[in-house]
Design a protein that fits this description.
single chain; about 220 residues; alpha/beta; Rossmann fold; 7-stranded mixed sheet; two-stranded antiparallel sheet; 6 helices; binds S-adenosylmethionine
Length: about 220
């Protein structure tokens, strides 16, 4: 069994390698359109931070309402694709960084992350949410979406393991973290960290969460 940091490194290596075929691995199951409607309803305005932006599938949608957008990802190959997708929009700043050590250099009106929370290992969960809290203005809003779809052939370490095996089109295998959150459990975990976030399921394996930091609560696990 690998230690946490080497799994995180392998996970990033997977996304670097899969960047050019990323859209070919999108899962074709119900609920996708519900997520898109939820993002459209969220409609973030002002200065927006997108974490793990990937190839920019959501970035363009966020730019429909954002005044500025800072998009962070650890894979230069993904960032190149996101840059190409949004073109020369001067409202966008891309940052290449490891989200397990990065800290925001300013605060934002909204923080968004699509298909990222399921890839955050359990022992990084609280630190990741501290990063989000530290990146938000008081009263700022969060939106995330993800899925808990883990096909049987990926469960090479068993159904109880957070680790799954993904393969590139050429068959190369990579171990990645994929935590199959249930919306109600995730909502409770976030409440325990001081968040007031509603997590909503869809007709398929997708879910989204939206809300903010609970007024009057001090941040648990927050960085000084
Ligand atoms: C499932 S993809 C989601 C991409 C995009 N948000 C979307 O919904 O299509 C996960 C993203 O996390 C990025 N990533 C993986 N490990 C990372 C790390 N340690 N730091 C920053 N980004 C990372 C990958 O490069 C990839 O773009």
């Amino acid at each position: 069994m690998s230690d946490g940091s080497s799994v995180q490194a392998e996970q990033l290596a997977y996304y670097r390698a899969v960047a050019d075929e990323y859209e070919e691995h999108v899962i074709d199951v119900p609920g996708q359109d519900e997520l898109q409607s939820a993002v459209d309803s969220f409609r973030p305005t002002g200065d927006v931070l997108e974490l793990a932006c990937g190839s920019g599938l959501w970035t363009q949608r966020l730019l429909r309402s954002a005044s500025t957008l800072t998009a962070v990802d650890g894979a230069p190959e993904m960032l190149a694709r996101a840059r190409a997708r949004v073109g020369s929009d001067r409202r966008v700043r891309f940052i290449e960084a490891d989200l397990f050590s990065w800290q925001a250099d300013r605060r934002y009106d909204a923080v968004f992350f699509g298909f990222w929370i399921s890839h955050v290992p359990d022992d990084e969960f609280a630190a990741f949410w501290s990063l989000v809290a530290d990146a938000l203005t008081p009263g700022g809003r969060v939106f995330f979406c993800d899925d808990n779809h883990r096909p049987e052939p990926e469960l090479i370490e068993g159904a109880d393991s957070p680790l799954v095996q993904r393969r590139l089109n050429d068959g190369r295998p990579f171990t990645v973290i994929k935590i199959p959150f249930e919306p109600a459990d995730l909502e409770q975990r976030l409440q325990a960290l001081g968040w007031s976030i509603t997590v909503t399921g869809t007709s398929g394996p997708f879910y989204w969460g939206t809300g903010g930091f609970t007024p009057g609560r001090s941040r648990l696990g927050g960085r000084a």
